[in-house]
Specification:
Blueprint (H helix, E strand, L loop, with lengths): L2 H30 L30 E4 L42 E9 L5 E10 H9 L11 H4 L1 H21 L3 H13 L2 E2 L2 H4 L9 H7 L1 E2 L1 H14 L4 E5 L4 E7 L7 E4 L2 E6 L21 E4 L3
Parallel strand pairs: 4-5
Antiparallel strand pairs: 1-3, 2-3, 6-7, 6-10, 7-9, 8-9
Length: 305
């Protein structure tokens, strides 16, 4: 065989190899890098070395300790019917309104520590947040979005989204250190929010209805169902899970996009299953639905971005 023939043969092999590599790359991208994660009930955990967490913007490095297994009891806060103020008593912002908080004082931080037991009862997790008093007072002074379809604006605000991302990063660090997978990280996000006290708006703000920015709920270490639901969908969005808000006449919960193999209560939206998640009270997991909302319709508000 001549040198020229050998050279042509080598070039042909290289071209075919490159084509195969490109084809495999495209299939891998389509199969394994979806835009939004599904919650999975796969209980297998990956073996990882504990990760040294980076310093979050608004939270301290999380602390992890082990504990003995214990039994938890599902419980949910009592709910009462409230009336939204009459239209003339409500200040409504235009859709293009953007909070314009500017730091004009030296920050005065309040430490808020949230502690909870991991979903497998093996650890006690905690996240301590340093939250600025003046930023809190600014957001607390703003008028409210009362229409449920506008609730996403509470988590789209740049300062609140930075806090939500910081919490999501801390949860990832905790989960990696414990060897949890992505779906188990979502369970820890749920437990984190469920550890926050249930407080009626009338008791904490003096108003019958007062949806809160995530910063407010964290700073107060308390809120009612729409407050904790807004906080939870914000964190899960930063963890890249598909979510929605579920608005009943007297209650707000969330849905998380899940695989068909999961059992439990769910809503079907655009051909996808969004499993019910209770943000108030401890012990509720994905698909658990309290009796007082079973067989009832809910307004579904998909969370985007």
């Amino acid at each position: 065989m001549s040198n020229r023939s050998i050279l042509l043969l080598v070039l042909l092999v290289l071209v075919l190899g490159l084509y195969a590599q490109v084809t495999l790359s495209d299939e891998s991208f389509l199969d394994y890098l979806p835009e939004t994660e599904f919650f999975s009930d796969n209980k297998q955990t990956k073996i990882t070395q504990p990760v040294q967490p980076e310093q979050p913007v608004q939270t301290t490095a999380p602390q992890v300790t082990t504990r003995k297994k214990k039994t938890t009891t599902k419980k949910t806060a009592k709910r009462k019917t409230v009336e939204i103020p009459e239209q003339e008593d409500v200040q409504i912002y235009k859709d293009d309104r953007i909070p314009d908080y500017k730091q004009t004082h030296t920050p005065e931080y309040k430490d808020v520590k949230i502690e909870w037991t991991s979903h497998d009862q093996m650890h006690i997790f905690s996240i301590t947040m340093h939250l600025d008093k003046y930023m809190y007072e600014y957001y607390h002074s703003l008028a409210r979005y009362y229409d449920e379809k506008d609730y996403q604006k509470y988590i789209d605000d740049s300062n609140n989204r930075e806090i939500l991302k910081s919490i999501a990063d801390s949860l990832k660090n905790l989960a990696d250190g414990a060897g949890y997978d992505g779906s188990q990280t979502a369970l820890e996000a749920i437990n984190f929010v469920q550890a926050i006290k249930y407080v009626y708006d009338i008791d904490s703000t003096g108003k019958e209805e007062f949806p809160k920015y995530p910063l407010e709920t964290l700073y107060d270490f308390g809120g009612d169902c729409e407050d904790t639901s807004i906080l939870l969908v914000g964190i899960l969005r930063e963890l890249n899970f598909g979510t929605c808000l579920l608005d009943y006449d007297d209650h707000v919960a969330i849905g998380i996009m899940g695989e068909d193999s999961i059992t439990g209560s769910y809503f079907e939206i655009d051909g996808k299953k969004y499993f019910y998640v209770e943000s108030t009270g401890e012990g509720w997991t994905v698909g658990d639905m309290p009796d007082d909302v079973k067989n009832r319709s809910a307004k579904v508000i998909k969370i985007t971005g």
